[in-house]
């Protein structure tokens, strides 16, 4: 089992989500060899806290990983006002 502690504003966490996680999913998770669990670790302030709460809410709806992948889809600067909560209309609307 791999437990990732992450902040949605962390650039290295985003890079891991975009580059490494897909390989782990393909090579290990899909074969049943690895399980990935994710933990909120909001360390970069208010926007990190809001993103963590939004992730929790998405998880309660069975959509955590969709939220995770959307937030990490593109690199963004920390505390830039592009938080994944609070201004949901600013986020792209995607099915699923």
For the CA atoms, what is the radius of gyration? 13 Å
> Low-confidence parts, pLDDT < 50 over ≥5 residues?
89-93
Largest β-sheet summary: 2 strands, parallel
Beta percentage is 5-15%
Please, could you describe this protein's structure?
This protein has 96 residues and is mainly alpha-helical. The protein is 44% helix and 10% strand. It has helices at residues 11-29, 46-60, 64-71, and strands at residues 2-6, 36-40. Strands 1-2 form a two-stranded parallel sheet. Helix 2 (46-60) runs antiparallel to helix 3 (64-71). It is globular, with a radius of gyration of 13 Å. The relative contact order is 0.19. Mean pLDDT is 86; it is low at 89-93.
Task: Draw up the topology in text.
Blueprint: E1 2-6, H1 11-29, E2 36-40, H2 46-60, H3 64-71
Parallel strand pairs: 1-2
Helix pairs in contact: 2-3
Question: Which key features would you list for this structure?
Answer:
96 residues; mainly alpha; two-stranded parallel ribbon; globular
What's a quick, concise take on this entry?
The protein has 96 residues and is mainly alpha-helical.
């Amino acid at each position: 089992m791999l437990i990732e502690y992450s902040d949605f504003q962390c650039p290295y966490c985003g890079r891991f989500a975009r580059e490494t996680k897909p390989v782990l999913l393909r090579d290990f998770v899909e074969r049943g060899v690895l399980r990935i669990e994710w933990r909120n670790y909001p360390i970069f302030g208010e926007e990190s806290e809001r993103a963590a709460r939004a992730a929790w809410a998405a998880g309660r709806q069975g959509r955590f990983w969709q939220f995770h992948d959307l937030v990490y889809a593109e690199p963004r600067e920390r505390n830039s006002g592009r938080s994944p909560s609070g201004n949901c209309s600013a986020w792209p609307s995607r099915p699923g």
